[in-house]
Amino acid sequence: MTPKVIFKYSEIYDAILKEGKGKLPKIRVFPQVKIINYIKKVETMWQRDERKILSELSKITSLKWSDKKIYCYVVKDSIPFSDPLTIPIYKKYPDYFIDVLIHELIHRLFTESMNLNKSKKAWNYIFKKYKKQPYNTKIHIPLHAIHAYIFLKFYNKRRLKREIDWISYLSDYKKSWQIVQKEGYKNIIREFVKLIK
Fold first, then answer.
1. Do residues 180 and 192 lie in contact, with contact meaning Cβ atoms separated by under 8 Å?
2. How many domains does the chain have?
3. Do 86 and 129 belong together in one domain?
């Protein structure tokens, strides 16, 4: 089963993320038109390749999607995260929104309850092999390898390079990408997937 990503905007959720913990949000009556228009734009871009990408992620990892629908909250400003799936607006680069979405969906696939047990040996292998690396680097090594595969299959090298360059300000992510480039994304995927039950 391949899920469908449903894009949503919630003023309450957006306000809580913006104003921080413990503060009551100031809610406007109507959602902002710009955000709704942005959602339509990225939704159209995503729908072109959604089924192919989500099917390919399942195929190359040997992991299954469990949800029929995955809600993706689009917010004005936040770090992106996978649960609840939340992605901020990237005004100048809506295609980068798609790249971030794929990154978070890979996290989501890894952490679905039935996949955690199936991939336990694979994660033990990663954590043992890269034991000297920070936690964030370790969890992103297979993720970035898989994302590199998706970039090259569905998009292009230029877009992959942009991802690597733009994320390099985060040292754990930079190190992860360096490992993927040094060892080869295909090798990392192969070693990881062969340990998935």
1. no
2. 2
3. no
**Distance from C-alpha of 180 to C-alpha of 147, rounded to nearest angstrom:** 10
Q: How far apart are CA 150 and CA 144, in angstroms?
A: 10
- Co-location of 8 and 73 in the same domain: yes
Give the DSSP letter string of 77-127.
Answer: S---EETTEEEE--SS-HHHHHHHHHHHHHHHHHHSHHHHHHTHHHHHHHH
Any domain includes 105: no
Alpha carbon distances (Å) from 52 to 32, 58, 79, 182 = 31, 10, 26, 28
Residue labelled with tokens 């228009």: 37
Nearest to 180 by CA among 194, 195, 168: 168
Q: Are residues 126 and 188 in the same domain?
A: yes
**By CB neighbour count within 10 A (0-12 exposed, 13-18 middle, 19+ buried), where does 98 fall?**
buried
pLDDT digits (tens, 9 = 90+) for 29-47: 445 778 899 999 999 999 9
Q: Are 129 and 183 in contact (CB under 8 A)?
A: no
Distance CA 177, CA 175 (A): 5
H helix or E strand, kind and range, residue 141 = helix 135-154
pLDDT above 70 as % of the chain = 94
Q: Find the domain containing 8 and state its range.
A: 4-93
pLDDT per residue as tens digits for the range 96-154: 999 999 999 999 999 998 999 999 999 999 999 999 999 999 999 999 999 999 999 99
